[in-house]
Amino acid sequence: MPRGIMPRRPSRSGRQDNVSKAATRAKVSHPGKGSLKPALSLPKGGAPGSKSAPKLSGKPAKGYNPVAPGRVNEILKRLDERYPRATCALHHSSAWELLVATILSAQCTDVRVNMVTPVLFEKYPTPEAFAALQPEDLEDDIRSTGFFRNKAKSLVGAARKVVSEFGGEVPRTMDELLTIPGVARKTANVVLGTWYKIADGVVVDTHVQRISRRLELTKNTDPGKIEQDLMKVIPREKWILYSHQIIFHGRALCLARSPKCADCPLENICHAGDKTWSTVEMHKNARL
């Protein structure tokens, strides 16, 4: 060996670069008999971009079906184990308060909404109180939620509709909810699922859109089409809980930028093309 040249010594810890301790210690749970074993096997892999990392493939392996019942059920099972008590993060004590909070949550964090609504509901405790206002009366109270002028118009319009046509009670059908100003399918699904426990659809917010695409449960980008795709592959009894769990997952691990893949319970059945670490082949089209 030429003098002065020293070979690189392997790490004493045996850890790969960019892999967290949690990932190296984590035990991978394998499904029971009859599940999709090929999709759950763990090939050797390192961080994306390393020599040992799985290749980024344009097409999934032949025979791979991302919406196969076995794979979907495994996803739901792992979400149940990780987020067994997931529920709506918006604070509310009635269907009306949930409707108001959901309208305010557009382009705003739930944390911020939960800071605004206690004061708002103390000043205006009923739909009738909101209905008696002009939109300008609400603007200062909800300014910090963003888009406050449009939201103020929606809240006053929603209150007047609920009072004049539904006797002050938020309706419990999709068709009726969609006639209320400021209410689209996402808001209607939140109210129906969270308050009334009626599974009429799937809430598709930014987290559900991003993660459902990464998991290859949909190829669409339009929320309405994504909802239709999810309703086809997820059992109806899971529609409500799935959205809550995915929202929790999106906030905790599956971030829009730099998702925490090494700590994710779905890692070895997720082939997302923008993973930060992977033990399985990555599909370049499986991303937001």
Task: Give a structural overview.
The protein is an all-alpha fold and 288 residues long. Helices cover 44% and strands 1% of the residues. It has 13 helices and two strands; from the N terminus they run H-H-E-H-H-H-H-H-H-H-H-H-H-H-E. A two-stranded parallel ribbon has the order 1-2. Helix 4 runs antiparallel to helix 10 and helix 7 packs across helix 8.
Kindly summarize this structure in a few lines:
This protein has 13 helices and 2 strands, in the order ααβαααααααααααβ.
SSE blueprint and pairings:
Layout (H helix, E strand, L loop, with lengths): L20 H5 L11 H4 L15 E2 L11 H14 L12 H10 L5 H14 L3 H5 L3 H8 L5 H19 L7 H4 L7 H11 L10 H9 L8 H11 L5 H14 L29 E2 L5
Parallel strand pairs: 1-2
Helix pairs in contact: 4-5, 4-10, 7-8, 11-13
Class by SSE composition: mainly alpha
Subunit organisation of the chains: single chain
Number of DSSP E strands: 2
Strand order of the largest sheet: 1-2
The helix/strand series, from N terminus to C terminus, equals: HHEHHHHHHHHHHHE
Q: Give the integer mean of the pLDDT values.
A: 86
How would you sum up the major sheet? 2 strands, parallel
